From TrEMBL:
It is found in: Cytoplasm, Cytoskeleton, Microtubule organizing center, Centrosome; Nucleus. Keywords: Activator, Acyltransferase, Bromodomain, Chromatin regulator, Cytoplasm, Cytoskeleton, Nucleus, Transcription, Transcription regulation, Transferase. SMART domains: BROMO. It catalyses: L-lysyl-[histone] + acetyl-CoA = N(6)-acetyl-L-lysyl-[histone] + CoA + H(+). The lineage of its organism: Eukaryota, Metazoa, Ecdysozoa, Arthropoda, Hexapoda. PROSITE patterns: BROMODOMAIN_1, BROMODOMAIN_2, GNAT. Residues 478-624 form the N-acetyltransferase domain. It holds the Pfam family PCAF_N. Its EC number is 2.3.1.48. Belongs to the acetyltransferase family. GCN5 subfamily. Residues 16-51, 378-397 have a biased composition (Low complexity). Residues 1-64, 371-415 are annotated as: Disordered. This is histone acetyltransferase. Residues 718-788 form the Bromo domain. It comes from Drosophila arizonae (Fruit fly).
Amino acid sequence: MSGGPAITLKSQPIDGNNGNSGNAAAQQQQTANNAAAAASSSSSSQASSGTVPPAQEGTRQSSLQRIQLRKQKVFNLPEAQKLAKLSMYSACQFEGCRCTGWKTPQENRHRDVESSYCPEPTEECRNASCRHPLRSHISHLTEISRSSMDELLGAIIDMENLFMSMQRVEDEDTKKVYLYLFRLLRQCVLTRQQAVIRGPLGDPPFESPCITKAVLSLVFYKYNHLNPTELQTMTEVAKTFLNFLNHYNFESPSARRGDPTLTHEDASTYKINYTRWLVFCHVPAFCNSLRQFETSLVFGRTLLRTVFQYMSQQLKKKCISERDRFPEDKRSIITQMPKFLEALRAELLKDDSPIWDSTYRPPNSFVVQQRKRHQEVAPPATISSAGAAAPSGSKRSSVGEPAHKRVKKEVAERVTSENQDDLPIEVVMRAMKSVAESKTSNKSEILFPINVSRDENVKAEEQKRAIEFHVVGNSLTKPVDKQTILWLLGLQLVFAYQLPEMPREYISQLVFDTKHKTLALIKENQPIGGICFRPFPTQGFTEIVFCAVTMAEQVKGYGTHLMNHLKDYSIQRGIKHLLTFADCDAIGYFKKQGFSKDIKLARPVYAGYIKEYDSATLMHCELHPSIVNTQFIAVIRNQSEILKELIAQRHNEVQKVRTGLTCFKEGLPSIPVESIPGLREIGWKPQMRPVRASRPLEESTDPEKLATQFASVLQSVRQHTAAWPFLRPVTAAEVPDYYDHIKYPMDLKTMGERLKKGYYQTRRLFMADMARIFSNCRFYNSPETEYYRCANSLERYFQTKMRELGLWDK
Ligand code: ACO
């Protein structure tokens, strides 16, 4: 594992340090040529201007500063010079010309475009197939705003840095990723679109719960009983850990080959996660034209498991080596770290740990408290994996970030905070307050509650001690009190009356059997219902033998509350499953209590233990350790009231009338949709696609008609001359490492099969599979290959065919 002192890639930092090594490779391809040239230009110009230190292995922070300085310098250039730089990555607008970037007439002059040299608009491109003046490469750019121009220049610098990093990195997997991102940025600069990563890697977040959420849950789960100061310390320890992880430098999969801690399956999962980390977390930290995600917010248990051992060792070592740098009042973070890591390790290994359960959630009060503490206390010193104690808030520099990046960051922050808490806590708190107030203000409802569930009434009776629940049983080793015996006798009668098919002796035998217990519902000191059960702790389940409520008390909610008590009782004793043979008439009741005929336990777990009955149905209920069943209905009810209140609040916002837009009167030709006031507030998101007015919702289109149209498109696509690489699935025998890189393969044969099975119910599904064929191909193969060309050509043909049938949006 790497993750050593410097936060740089193992072989080469993406840091703005440039050499000349790009030039040789640059001759091989047009795009690379421009990049290498421009990259080396920056090197010389930096060195000559003296604004940037000479190339050397630097820390993450200094790398970021160098990149930012260089960008700022380019942003401050006169416009003519900026355009000259842009021209090197802009397609010639001369009709029929295919040149993708202007080249300086003298081979090495491009180096100076970032310092002194400013070519004339009339100077001719050195590219023999172009020879058009610089002007023809920028004619389409002269009208763009300053900020758009700076965005493009920022992306160009990112691209150049990527190219240089790619030249130096030794690891083939990493190199491939750099190349992919380089091409992506190159394409974005050419087309003036924002970089969006699509493809077989999937979209972040990749796992739920994310590491941040699980670590917060761990603090609650393990340390909530501590006093506030100790709890505060553990929270800071957890944050220090997350900070370390977010700056951790993961080792390439090839360097981990032979690592005994990784199974074969782990190794291939690690490879995918490593690629995701590079693409979404690590590279964008340096290339701010790409959207960046925090490692701890997009990855979960799978990634942490594969890196934890080595990473925690490193963190412990750092704690020791940096102990003296920590202010005295923060030393407890260092001393508590091993304990915290040990607890986290244990939860990582446990398959049923609640902290890794996506539904587990510390109570809101805890989350709010933690936030308050976080705001009140000055940020703790944290150990970054860069090796130095850094203030936790320092993270990455955002000085001079392009506007689009800031927007993207805001979106990213919104997405990640949405990922943790669906709505800002203040909004939820406001809704909760309003629900509570409406309850207290509506006095008549308190006296005569309308629409209150039976469960609430039973709970109210229980609170008033009008009814009681007791687990009772016979014993041969301990004295059994008279009251218990009387209740057992009463229960025996209840069961005998309500289950007339059961022989009385059999009921007596089991009710008084010492291995069986009965949960008794007592009213006025008489049993009015009960559940007789037998726990099998070694098997992890409890068998429900009899369950009944006296006739006069049925359908009042007692049966439900009895079952909820039994569930809580079982959970407290580590039992996670209830099994019963339900009478035909009682199946409906058991279904309502969460039982199902679908038995999730393997038969050997219960066969031979549970008593089997003819003409009864085996039913199973899985218990969730973090649910308090006796509170569950009330919680759900409360939540639904809060939801209703939130919907009402949102409704009020949507109804808000805003002043109209004045920007068009002021001469603006267009504005981004997202800048229209109120649109985001009602939930509009940039990625939402408009529904075309000319066609009804595709979901409502006749599926049979769609299927016929898809069949005809598929047939035409199959017969195209460029279709041959995609006709059937790629086999591992043909391309051994294909499935290491491509997680979601697709081909025309599979699409045909899916079409026959009726999978393509919507146009979107059909298009997504076809798009996957092309994106997989372009991800795996490089542009100079025949495969890549086939993908491009077939994709164009596919779009034409779809357009012919009116199935294409644009
Ligand atoms: N079939 C379908 N639904 C039922 C049945 C039934 N036999 N019994 C109750 N329910 C429903 C209720 O209508 C209610 O639904 P709702 O909340 O949507 O209105 C829900 O189940 C729970 O009702 P409760 O009032 O909480 O249950 P109750 O106190 O009536 O107790 C019980 C249910 C124990 C099944 C009771 O009706 C009874 O004693 N029945 C006779 C004995 C019996 O059949 N026991 C089960 C035999 S199987 C065995 O013991 C393993």
